[in-house]
């Protein structure tokens, strides 16, 4: 892969090499003039020169002077060896093992200087190789102090726990693991030991490993590191530390992490006792952060920017699009349409779809993932196959998070539903799409998220899908090359009105509507509360803002009554709003939750469409009188979720029409709704949760009949797929209709 990268780099990155390198003067900083390159050293004398350089630099370190003279800009890794700036072992690892030839802008601008020992804060675009920019100087200093570590040998003395020379702090666990993996690649042919200390992992096992093998480079997250350093029995000491790196420095220096970073700093050796180099890296460096960073950097430090202030901080080769959707209820259909487009493009010779879908909150990630995971299977596979689905957020265990992130890294085609845990630093190969649902929290968040695609010279697309009423988006995207996009048909549909739709749109609305219903109330309720809170905190027109969220519950999730809100949220409601229209009665018991899709009056109701819930289907075929949901214009499918080929009008049918599978027994006389029949005949529709299989169930009992995902998954939230004949019968609070 690296070879491929360096090839594409020659085309893309190298051409831009040094173009925008800029050393800024900020108060108290030195401007460094680019010195001309030193003379080329013939290869025969190179090693001698390096040895001499290493000796000199070791002395220099002892006298607290920079270890290597800055030799001016360099653009190839080979030059580090040719000029005696880095040990041959490092150059060999970079060029031979990792297959890298040319440096990126940020590497060219920082590696030489960092090797000279100065402190620096560096800002460069995402995916341009900042990790190696700090790992190379780290490794050089370690080998410089102990040249015996340069070669891999079983004879070299074992490291001890307090041998750590470099500490790299990362804001997230996954990023720490990724940095450690890159460091291990770089040090593969040396005796330098890399260790990781991250929260959520087994502390005792990590300590045992450190005791057994020792540590030279420690990569850690702030929480676990503080824990280890303040635990006197852990044995972790950083008394020999000579390099401190903060990756994603602006994040680590913001309010959330700053106190912890300061606490960690107090555990490090005093600078006058042991000179230390501090390196701060990020794609974004707000001014306030730079001010704060001075508390960590020596007075004589540099700020290096490889992006001019008048240039966009994102990559030109990543087109950035903004889709304004009609309402919150259009978000998932528009997302589905976009993902289908991506798969279609792959089928027509494009790159396999590999998308990260970012949401602002964990609740939204969970709901989004659940909806897409519950899409009706086609031929026993997800309609988004071959793309595999993943979710990642902070509510998952570390084991699940690592599995998701490793799984997504490896697949050729996949969709990862993610919170901001993977917004920064993560280097997933070949990501084709970054999609942000709703306005990101800040411009910096937007930049980092977009940076998950278009890395190391590759192509990618960026999309933001947000309601048209979102006023914050303009400020967030100000000055960025974002273009409005109107290509998604489902984005602008008025889902509150019945309509006759093109085939694709009808299919999308039906499938998303159906999948949404499979998802339990707990997840919907969390998202409802989150969005209502945001709306009440931010909306200028509060009534309209509140109504938008109520509409989501009604037209997006098909709920007759909105989920219940806490007193805290209700307390924020402006006067004049009828509470009963915004909050359902008390939180449902599980049994209520299960039957949340029942129709109170036994009549089928709205889902998507049916303003008052009384209509018999949202976007139905006007002429046919069908009661099915979103019909396509050609009059193809009649039932909400019925099998296309089937004559039946109701519900899910098994494709092969077997009486055991599918969503409705073929023989059933109920032509009613997908979810619960209109009549009280319990034989059809999405019914019979308790005794599924008697006449029909979905997913089918027998998984090999095409259930997707497996049944256990589907019912994980309490079997909410019960029909109105479900055990608790009668009227239900969270009801919605059956006909779409
Ligand atoms: N000189 C180079 N030539 C080609 N590829 C490189 C080079 N340096 C690094 N890479 C590769 O580029 C990819 C991105 O690197 P890296 O993750 O360090 O980027 P970054 O700048 O830290 O990104 P972010 O801002 O998102 O944290 C990695 O796969 C890395 O191996």
From TrEMBL:
EC nos: 3.6.4.13
Record-linked InterPro entries: DEAD/DEAH_box_helicase_dom (IPR011545), Helicase_ATP-bd (IPR014001), Helicase_C-like (IPR001650), P-loop_NTPase (IPR027417), RNA-helicase_DEAD-box_CS (IPR000629)
Record-linked CDD domains: SF2_C_DEAD
Transmembrane listed as a keyword: no
Residue ranges of the region described as Disordered: 577-740
Domain (Helicase ATP-binding) ranges: 111-303
Record GO terms (molecular function): ATP binding; hydrolase activity; RNA binding; RNA helicase activity
Signal sequence extent: none
Reactions listed under catalytic activity: ATP + H2O = ADP + phosphate + H(+)
Chain intervals with Gly residues compositional bias: 604-617
EC primary class: hydrolase
Pfam families the UniProt entry points to: DEAD, Helicase_C
Similarity-based family: Belongs to the DEAD box helicase family.
Written domain comment of the UniProt record: The Q motif is unique to and characteristic of the DEAD box family of RNA helicases and controls ATP binding and hydrolysis.
PANTHER family: RNA HELICASE
Task of the protein: RNA helicase.
Protein name from the UniProt record: ATP-dependent RNA helicase
